[in-house]
Amino acid sequence: MKIKITSVFVNEQEKALKFYTEILGFVKKKDISVGDYRWLTVVSPDEQNGTELLLEPNVNPAAKQFQESILTQGIPATQFFVEDIQKEYERLKELGVGFTMQPTKVTGSTIAVFNDTCGNLIQIVQLD
User: Fold this and answer.
1) 3-state class of 116 per DSSP?
2) CATH, range 5-127
3) pLDDT tens digits for 48-87?
4) How many whole angstroms separate alpha carbon 122 and alpha carbon 70?
5) Cα–Cα 20 to 30 A to 30, which of 3, 20, 22, 66?
6) Which one, of 77, 100, 103, lies nearest residue 89 by Cα?
7) Is the whole model's pTM more than 0.85, yes or no?
8) Residue of 30, 25, 18 lying closest to 46 (CA atoms)
9) Which helix (H) or strand (E) holds 87?
């Protein structure tokens, strides 16, 4: 068993695609029309056959409530690993990304948290 796709709820798929590709640097993998929405996934440019991130519309009331609740509580919706968190933090700050937590040392890693502009907080992690 392995993880092939994971998802993050977004309030606007097109806006999310732009942020996740143009700002974060992911690559669009799949873009399939499904009625009013899209099966829209992105992948790491370094692992284009790796795990896909589904940019899933939050149209289900339960999904929307979940997304809004964890955002309000300051809980990241997901996390991405980076090799050099300070370098990534500075790169993203230069692109206008809003951080709610600058790189902070915690047990076993350094973490930072930013707003993806699509209804989520995202945590980046550099392992020790």
Assistant:
1) coil
2) 3.10.180.10
3) 999 999 999 999 999 999 999 999 999 999 999 999 999 9
4) 11
5) 66
6) 103
7) yes
8) 25
9) helix 85-94
What is the CB neighbour count within 10 angstroms for residue 88?
Answer: 20
Tokens of residue 122, six digits:
């995202």
Lookup: tokens for 79: 């996390």
User: In 3D, which of 5, 11, 9, 8 has the Cα closest to residue 29?
Assistant: 5
The encoded tokens of residue 94 equal 């230069």
CB within 8 Å of 90: residues ≥ 6 apart: none
Tokens at residue 58, please?
């939050």
Give yes or no for a contact between 93 and 87, defined as CB atoms under 8 angstroms apart.
Answer: no
Q: What residues contact 87, with CB distance under 8 A and at least 6 apart?
A: none
In DSSP terms, 99 is beta-bridged to: 114
d(CA 116, CA 26): 13
